[in-house]
Amino acid sequence: MYIHSLLSAAACIICSAVLLFSFSMPFRGFDCSRRIFQLLNVPGTGFTPGVNNNDNINIIDGIRIRADRDIQEYSVPSNHGTMGLYSLLDEQTWSYIVFFLGVIALVLYAMSTFFIIVSQIGGRFILFKKEDTALISDNVPGVSIIKPLMGIDPLLEINLESHFSISYPKFELLCCVQDDHDPAINLVYKLKEKYPKVDCSLFIGGKDGIINPMVHNMAPAYDHAKYEYVWISTRSTDIMMDMACKLQKPNVALCHQMPFTTDQKGFAQTLEKTYFGGAFARYYLAFNILGLCCCTGMSYMFKKSALDELHGLNWFGKYLAEDFYLTHALHEKGHRLVMSSYPAQQNLAQSAVVGYKNRMVRWLRLRLNMMPLVSGFLEPMTECIPLGLYAAWAFYHFLGINPYIFFAVHFCLWLISDHLLLRLIQHGPLPFSKLQYTIVWILREVLAVWVFFVALISPRRIKWGKHTYKLSLGGHTELLNTHDKGKVKL
């Protein structure tokens, strides 16, 4: 059932085992740098391609050992059962395997370094740059703002009121709640009285037949949206003009915001800000600068006509990750997806480290079912700690660089790089000290490894709100009975 995820996990485990075994092996015949010289016929290596080299090989207890003068003596125990993995393959085969693993490490490290550089440099040219409003000065497009609501939190009134007070000439606000007992209803009526000139409608109850709870909530509002531009806004922001201007450009069907957080006090809030401004942004920003399809559904504005050509928003409600499939469908149709110059500011009124970890596990499980090979291998191997260990081993074997020094330098450089990127996205002073940042950043990197292994436990089941969902490869979702004993609690 979990074949892709298990294969990816198995590949990670095998790679780790080989790396650890290679570190503990004193026999230099497994040194990849020497094997390269042998294959290139460098004098003194004792290996000539196309020539019988068997005279230079001794057989010790059935194990082929090269007798070059620069190889240390290697004693093989007489008990063949203790030889383990190395007794199955000869030296040359192991050299090719280790060489291949080393090349993968170097490629992954080069890719990650490239993306970090793109984010650091490119972000300074695109973030917080205002669009030319002359593009829409003659004919300002109307915007339908869909605001899904569920319950009350300490910052909800500030969040919702920011939508009522938006300084945009033509918009409607469509608020959505799941049932008529939701306490957010009274807040909506209160703000409607305070801002009587705002075109605001309240939709109670979702639309049957839709699995995704958020799409289920928003479906009635989407069906009644009267403007061409639709903005699904789950957080407070006031950058509609920037997004509307970008949608005016040729062939642009969707404009999205990079997730970020407002300044809130607390350890968990610092963790959230450090993650979204560092580890998340280092790739999200680079992918969008390079024109790759990488969007989240936290806050995005799109052309309703373009999405209606693809069956509309409600059709994507069969997926939990509707934003992933929606944006990819638009991209494959030939439409452009662009990122706003302004990050989406989340108001995190109630946050805890456990809640952060659970959300990361839920998101990773979604990605494991949407992109099993990418999220099962490439994603964890581009995190700071796994990639640093992997690259330290590779640079040691190819170039003889001390792996401990390499990892320490790598770790410090990534810590500094993420801090610079965080300050860039913050666009102002950070609400915590450098010491607090360092502690939280290290915790985040350790949690990333823990989250990966937790996500592999029952990767097909996700607990979201009051419901449990079962996923299948491709992202198709089935709603399970919330009282099932087998449900996964995150």
TrEMBL record:
- Coiled-coil positions: none
The UniProt entry lists membrane topology as: Multi-pass membrane protein
Q: Name its pathway.
A: Lipid metabolism; sphingolipid metabolism; Sphingolipid metabolism
Major site of localization recorded for this protein: membrane
Q: What SUPFAM superfamilies does its record include?
A: Nucleotide-diphospho-sugar transferases
Top EC class, one word: transferase
Domain of life where this protein originates: Eukaryota
EC number(s) stated in the UniProt entry for this protein: 2.4.1.80
Q: Where are the transmembrane segments?
A: 94-118, 283-302, 370-392, 404-425, 437-457
InterPro entries noted in UniProt = Ceramide_glucosylTrfase, Nucleotide-diphossugar_trans
Localization, per the record, is:
Membrane
State whether keyword Transferase applies.
yes
Q: Which UniProt keywords apply?
A: Glycosyltransferase, Membrane, Transferase, Transmembrane, Transmembrane helix
Please report which protein family the annotation says this sequence is part of: Belongs to the glycosyltransferase 2 family.
Q: What is this protein called?
A: ceramide glucosyltransferase
Q: Which organism is it from?
A: Mya arenaria (Soft-shell clam)
